[in-house]
Structure to design on (197 residues):
C-alpha cells in the first residue's frame, strides 16, 4: 500500500487525484490528512497551519496509518509525499516499518546521527532553482548520508524547475518534469514494492 502525504496546503483534490492514479497502476493507496480537514487557500493560511503542527502528533498519525496499512493491505507499505509531507515521509522512513519512500522537494536537514536507522530505499525529486529546498540544503544532507553510511539507499533526481514543480494547481508547475518525476516514481514503486506483493 502507498500512503500519500500532502503539501502545506492540506489534503487537496490534487493529492486525492494522485492517489487514484496510484490505484489505477495496480497498487492500494490512501491519501492521509495531517491537518484534520483544514485545506489552505492562500500562503498565509498554509504557513499558519504548518506552524501549528506538533511533531509528536504528526509522527503518531503516520505511525498509526502505517500500522493500519500493514494490516489492511498487502503487508508492504511505501510513503509518497510532497513538500511539507516530504519532511514527515523521511521521518517515517527512519521510525516506522515501511518498505520504501518517495519524497518530492521535502526539507532534508537531518544529521548523520538521526539517519542511522534508515534501511529502506528512498527516491527523491528536487528542482535546481528551488529557493527553499535548494541544492545547498540537499548537498549538506548528502554529506550527512555519507557520514551515516546510507548513501546507497538514496536515489536522487534533479529537474530544471522550482519548488512545487509537480503540482498542476500553481504557477510553478512544469508539465514535462512533473511527468518524468511521476514516471520515475511509478518505476521505483514497481521495483521496491511490486515484487513484495
Amino acid at each position: 500500500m502507498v500512503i500519500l502525504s500532502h503539501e502545506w496546503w492540506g489534503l487537496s483534490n490534487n493529492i486525492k487525484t494522485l492517489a487514484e492514479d496510484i490505484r489505477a497502476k495496480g497498487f492500494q493507496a490512501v491519501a492521509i490528512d495531517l491537518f484534520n480537514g483544514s485545506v489552505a487557500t492562500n500562503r498565509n493560511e498554509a504557513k499558519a497551519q504548518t506552524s501549528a503542527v506538533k511533531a509528536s502528533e504528526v509522527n503518531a498519525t503516520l505511525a498509526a496509518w502505517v500500522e493500519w496499512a500493514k494490516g489492511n493491505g498487502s503487508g508492504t507499505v511505501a510513503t509518497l509525499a510532497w513538500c511539507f509531507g516530504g519532511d514527515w515521509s523521511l521521518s517515517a522512513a527512519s521510525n516506522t516499518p515501511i518498505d520504501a519512500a518517495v519524497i518530492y522537494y521535502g526539507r532534508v536537514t537531518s544529521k548523520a546521527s538521526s539517519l542511522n536507522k534508515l534501511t529502506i530505499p528512498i527516491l527523491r525529486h528536487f528542482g535546481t532553482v528551488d529557493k527553499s529546498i535548494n541544492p545547498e540544503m540537499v548537498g549538506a544532507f548528502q554529506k550527512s548520508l555519507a557520514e551515516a553510511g546510507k548513501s546507497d539507499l538514496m536515489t536522487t533526481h534533479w529537474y530544471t524547475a522550482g519548488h512545487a514543480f509537480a503540482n498542476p494547481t500553481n504557477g510553478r508547475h512544469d508539465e514535462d518534469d512533473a511527468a518524468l518525476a511521476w514516471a520515475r516514481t511509478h518505476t521505483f514503486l514497481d521495483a521496491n514494492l511490486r515484487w513484495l506483493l
Residues 51 and 172 are 23 Å apart (CA to CA). The chain has one domain: 2-196. The radius of gyration is 16 Å. The mean pLDDT is 93.
